[in-house]
Structures are given as C-alpha cells and as structure tokens.
Amino acid sequence: MRKAFIDSFIDSLKETFGVMTNLPEKCFSFISLPKTGYRVWAPPCTPTCPEGTACPYELILSFKLEEDIFVVALPKNIDRDLKLTPAFLVKFLLTVLEMLYIPEQKSDNLLIAEALQFLANQFNIEFFLFDNKGQLILSQTHSPIQLSTFTLWEKVSQTGEPEGFIKTRWGNFYYRIFTKDGITTGSIVWKTEPTKQEENKFLFHDDSFFTIPGKNPRFLEIKDLVRQIAVTDSTVLLQGESGTGKELFARYIHYLSPRKNHPFIAINCAAIPDNLLESELFGYEDGSFTGARRGGKPGKFELANGGTIFLDEIGDMPIQLQAKLLRVLENRQVERIGATVSRPIDVRIIAATNKDLKELIDAKLFREDLFFRLNVFPVFIPPLRERRDDIPLLLDFYLKNVCLEQDKPFKVFSPEAIQILQNYNWPGNIRELKNVVTYAVSICKGDKITPHYLPKYLQNGFSSSKSQFGEVKTTHPIIQVDQLKDQLEILLAKYGNSTQSKKLIAQELGISLATLYRWLRKYHLR
Amino acid sequence: MQEITIDWIEPLWYGSIFLGSGGGGKSYLLASELHKVLQNRAIPLLTLDELPENNFFCGVGLLGSPELSEESLPSGMEARIIIEELEKYTGAKFKGISIVEGAGVNIFYPLLTALQTGLPVTDGDAMGRAFPELQMTTYHLENLTATPLVLIDSNYNLHSFLDKQDTFLLELNTRQIISQQGGVGYFAGFPYPGSVLKRVLLPGTLTFAREIGECFLQADNYRELFSLLLEVTSNSFYGPVVEIFQGTVTSISTYEITKWKAATLISPKGEKLQLLFQYENLLAFKNGNMVASVPDLISAIDLNKLKPVNNNEIYEGQQLALLGLPAPLRLRISKALDVVGPQCFGYRTTYVPLEKLYWDYYHKKEVFS
C-alpha cells in the first residue's frame, strides 16, 4: 500500500516536472536528512560542498514518510522548458506537501503556510497571502509597499484561472488560487524581483512622497501627531473602525521614520490560526515540534529586525501569546519556540485594533499590562462619517487614481452624486468609498458620474431633486444584468456571507431575503 | 465666513504666480495697491458652500495685456461702471463678485473690485489656473455662456455683448476691441446665481493659492519648499506636485510677433529641456520626450530667489526648477480637453496626464486599500 503510494508520488513528480533522479551517495555527507516532514535544498546545499555552483541539480528534495526517507533531485537541463521559478517552486512544494500529508490528513492552510515559509526564507521575493475575501494574511515586502494590495487581489480573483500571472504597472505578479472542494480558500501573489526604481525618473529619489489625503481639522491634527511620533521609536497603538486606513497610517509612520529603508512587516493576528500565530511571530528552533522545518525558522519579529512590525487586529491575539508579546516589548528580545536563548531585536512596534481594548480587558480577553505597554502613543483614526468634509477630496483622489489604474479617461462626479455620497454613512469607511468609486468608474462610460452610476444601495437615498440647471438626467436606465451582479458582489464583499449579512444586504437593496437568495443563485454568487 | 485681510496679499501673490503657470501677468503693482488699501479693511470671502442660492454674482477680470495695465493701474472705478451697466441689462442686483481666472492679475483685480463695491468674493474660480481665452472655463463645460458681458476699454468706452453668444466668437470680438483700444480692458460678465456657481466653479482656488504662497514664505531651501508644496498640493483638488526639471536657461525665444515661443534649459548632467509657451507654459519636452502638457500646470521657480516666476521674468543664465502640478479633474475630462488641451493651442500632440508620465513617482508609495 505504502509502496504503491510512494511510486505514484514519484511518478506524479516526474510527470509534472520532468526528469527526477536519485541523489548520488557523495551528496549525503553535505545534507542532513529530515527527521520528519520534508526539506528542500536549492544547491549549493552547503558552503562546503566542493561542487558549489557547478552542482548538476537544480533542486533537491528529501522527505520522510513514516519510517522511510526519500531523496529526489531535479537535474539542471538547458533543454528542458521548466526553469526554477518561484511559480514552479510553489507548485513543486505543494505537490510534495499534498502527497506527504495525504496520509496525515493535514489542512490545506498548513500546506500553504509551509510552502510560503520556504519561499520567504530561501528566495528574495515579495509575496502577499490573501484569504478568500481579499484580506491580507501575511506579506513580505522589501520596501514600503508600492501598490494597493486590494487591487492586486481584485485582479487575481477576477482572472478565472487557478494560476498564472497578472500584469500590473509594477511588473508581473505570479499567483495561485487555492481551492478546497471547489470553494476558493485563498490566494498567494508573489514577485521575484523587488520593484525597480527607475533611475533619473525624477530628482527626488529618496523623497518620493507618501500622503494620506484629508484636510478635516481633526484629521490634520492626527496627521501632525503621527508625523511627530514617527521619528521616535515609541510603540504606537492605532485604533479605529475597519476600513479607516490603520495599515496606511502604520506604513506612513514607518515611511517617515529613520527605519524607512528597513523591512515593514505586517501581520494580521486575527487571520492566522492561533496555533500558527506563535511560530509566525516568534519563529521556532529545529525540531521543536512535528513538521518544524530543519534548521528552525525566524519569526516575523526577527524578520522585521531594524524595521517596523505591524500587528493588526491585536485585540484578537490569544491571551497566552499576549504574555509572550509582553516579554518582547519589555526586553526587546525574542525567543523562538523551543529555544533556550533569546535573540535581541531592534523593532518598532505598531499595533492596531478596531475593538475596544478596555472592554476586552474587562472581559479578561486582553492583558491590561500589555495594553499599557502598547498604548504609549494611542492614535484614534476617525471614521469617515466624522470627517464628511473630506469626502469630496477623497472622492476626487480615488476617482483620479481609479481612472489612471483602469486606464480610462478622467471623469467627474456630478454635484448630485457628490451630495449623495457626502450624506451616506460609510460603515465601511475609506475602503467602501474606494469600492464605490471603482464601481462607478467601471460602469460609467461618459465624463460625468451621475447618481445612477452609483451602487443601488446608495441610489435609494437619492430623490431626484429639482435642478436649476435642467441638465441632470433623473431617469434611471434599466439596470444591466452585470451591473446588478457587480452590486451584489460589492455588498457581499462589504458585509460578508453570513445570514445576518444577507439580511442587511436585502434591507439595503430594499428587497426580501428570498429575492436576494434567488439573485445570488442566479449569478452563482455564494 | 472668512475674510481676506492684509496678511493674505503676499502669499496670494506668490500663489497667483505659481497658478499662472508662466502666464497670468505681473501682478506686483496691483498686489501692492491692495496691500495699501487692506491696511484697515477686509474683503468677505465666501466658500462655494456659503454662496446664497438665489443671489446673483458677476465675474470680473482683465482682458488683454497685464503689462499695459501696470502702466495705468486700474482703480476699480471702471468695475463699478461695468457692473452697474451689467445690472441694467440683467435686471439683477449683484450680491458678490466671482473669479473667472484664479491666477496672476485676475486673482487680484476681482479683489480690488470687491473693495470698491463692498461686495464679497467667491473662493473658487472657473479656470483653476491661467488660460488666455474666454472659452477656456468651466462655464463652457456646462454649456453656460459668458454673456451678457460688458467690456470697458482703456479709453473708458463701454462695449456690451448682450445676446447669448458663442464664447469662441465672444473671445474674438472682445480681443478685436481690446487690440484697437489700447491693448487692455476690463469685463463684467458671467452673471449667475449662487446655485449655479456652486456646481460650476472650481472650489477653494483663493485659499489654495494662498496655501501655495505660504510655502514660498516658509521655506528656507528648495528641498523644504518642495516638501511643503507637496503636502499642500496632495491635499487639494489638483494633485501632488512633481519636479519636471532643474537647469539653467540657455536660450529663450525673442520673437515678439508670434505667439509660439520656446525656452531651452540644460541640466548639470547635460539633459536638455524645451519649454513651449505662448502666454502660459503649455508643453515641456525632455531630451525629445514630452514630460508635461496643458492643462496640467508647468510652473517655474527661480532657484536662487526660491520664488515662483512667470515667463516675462525668465532670462538666460537663470537657474530654474520646473514643477508640474496636475490640473483639477474637471479640466481633464474629454469635454474640457476640447477647449484646453494642447491641440487648442495649435500643437499636434495630445494631453498626457502627469500621473501617467511619472507613473512610478505617483504610485510608488501611495497605498489605498
């Protein structure tokens, strides 16, 4: 049974990747075989190997299945079409991992995480891991982010192919969408070369700008405060509703700080399973648990050394991890899982939450001492409805950017549309505003975005006010089929998929829940 | 409601030059005149939101050569005459002055008029920068005419254009009169109620011009100036400013008869920039490639004085930085490009937004998610 399984495994590797061979005996003195799980080498395996870069193999894989260790090698071959690209490597690793874990029946997430860890540690790449809603779970970038991660995810989720690459202005990004039982569970997008800065494109190379649009007096005060604290090394706690731009502020602080040329590592504490979060944050030592990678793995704190770590959704951090985080904050040292010694780190910590941490403290879900450690510089980012005066400016800002991104001629919002948007409550804040702008730009063919190009749930608040101008068309065209589908998608993205969310969506659209379900079925939306 | 006080004048002056994009005329004498008059007075400034819906406003401005107007400075009295004349024809009593061209001399002339008439001024204009012709306004985008319009020439003759008239034609007619009658004139026109101005005018031009000017007053060096301008422009309906070039002026065309003019700048690295201008700067080519185009603004800064300069202050050997400022969105939609795009000035090129020409600069560090 096991032999048949291994044979089919080797066959499938051969089929997918071409020639696989056994590794010569002499190599075994340079590699240490895994005691459990798998290990991958991209030769030269060790600095002492006499072959060095002349090694005839492109990749060596060893894995342990029950009691047996297998080693296969992928020879370099110039005639072969396949090259060792990250795309290839992810595929390779996932094939290996899937096969390895079939007997153990581990979850898909773990597979992805392991493949990613390998990629992140072995190769100089930038990657973004998203969940099925486009929430960034894990990312590694070399410089302050050059692009909108949400846009990236949108592009990937719209491709329709499970894997491939997407073209962006910043170059090509590879992606792979993960599915389980036909349902998308997430996606990974990565890039091998850090985005190049074109030389002499403009004279202020180092000072390319980073702005957060907003002129509301309270918002200006916050920006001033942030600018002042950015240059210090103090811990910052960003608080604000979902979609207010907490990560943007975190990056802004990093960009304005002396650490700007060092890594900015963002991690969403709510998006990673509790049992993985600890190893993600702190790393682990060799052999500390089953499946641990040989040689150990640095955690996000170590990866952020010299730079900034952004702990998003800190309120969702498990209480036992909070104690460990507190120690890091106090001693500026991290201890990998299974380690006996601590490693000193120089990291600026920015935490963010949309929850009331004091309530969590009362409910014994958040440590009070950790709260005081994090709350050195509390920054409250106001929701959009509390800075309505900024809405026209933000609409203008995103409208310009969306038109440029979609390579469409510039458009403007009609005064009526602006009025509707200024009066709307924006529960999803800036993120929702950007979605509305994207939606309107996508469907508006002309120069002017009038109210009927807004999502339907916004139009409901619009009564065709009499205009002194007589130019405004108040007759709404029949909503196109794809327009309705888009609206539903926007609402699903905004509210989520739960029954409660669907009730809210139906309410917003002014239809019954049954109709909503019928529409969702019709457009194959879940 | 805000008020324009004496503190506004100096920053507004620098801002008016910057928004002049090379043109707009010298406004120094007019600005100093206002500085004198505002010693113990103030002009009410209405944001577009504050404009009373049913009250009529009239747009005023200078037509022709601002240089000639410096030789015999307007008193504002002529404005009274033309406004009263316009009131006669429209039957409306004007409750405020609107700004047509929010740059150069035409930022200051409405202020002088406001002082003479005791009326408030709108914080918004119909061009967002300097443009040479009457049809290059946001009124045109809404199919609104400039007429009824009353013009007074430098010999104090009144000319009325009362019928609904095509603005292109009006531009020709007024220009003809001006060139025959001393080269400079003042108009009152664009009579519209607050409700219309709210949707037509570009908001906040005066405040923006002042903010731009403050940067020039605050900065001690070019780097600081650039960062200040960046912050101000990023939080405006224009867009973040970008540096197009730094270099020394090596030649400047002196053919006064033709409107086609060019200046050449050479950078320390030997790169060459050609600036094509008529009254305003319209196109810039760096080593043969287009690096900025109208309606985006191309404004020059004298690097030694660290102050904005317009084109009649440029001389050979001068060290300049050329900055690009994205025009407000409303000037960049197709309908607007039909009247303010490069082709409207006789160039055979199409408009390319600064954000496309400097894609990396504009998109490298921005995050919007």
Characterize the structure shown.
In chain A, about 40% of the residues lie in helices and about 20% in strands. By secondary structure, chain A is α/β, with parallel strands linked by helices. In chain A, α2 runs antiparallel to α3 (about 110-120), α14 packs antiparallel against α16 and α16 crosses α17 (about 500-510). The longest helix of chain A has 16 residues, at about 1-15. Chain A is globular and about 75 Å long. Mean pLDDT of chain A is about 75; it is low at about 195-210 and about 460-480. Chain B is an alpha+beta fold and about 375 residues long. Chain B starts with a strand and ends in a 6-residue tail after the last helix. The relative contact order of chain B is 0.15.
Tags for this model:
A: 526 residues, B: 369 residues, 8-stranded antiparallel sheet, 13 helices, 26% strand, globular
Write a compact overview of the structure shown.
Chain A is an alpha/beta fold and 526 residues long. Chain A has helices spanning 2-17, 86-101, 108-122, 149-157, 217-230, 246-256, 274-282, 300-303, 319-331, 357-362, 368-374, 391-405, 415-423, 429-443, 456-459, 481-495, 499-509, 513-522, and strands spanning 21-22, 38-41, 57-65, 68-75, 126-131, 136-140, 163-168, 171-180, 183-191, 236-240, 264-268, 283-284, 297-298, 308-312, 333-334, 343-344, 348-353, 377-381, 412-413, 448-449.
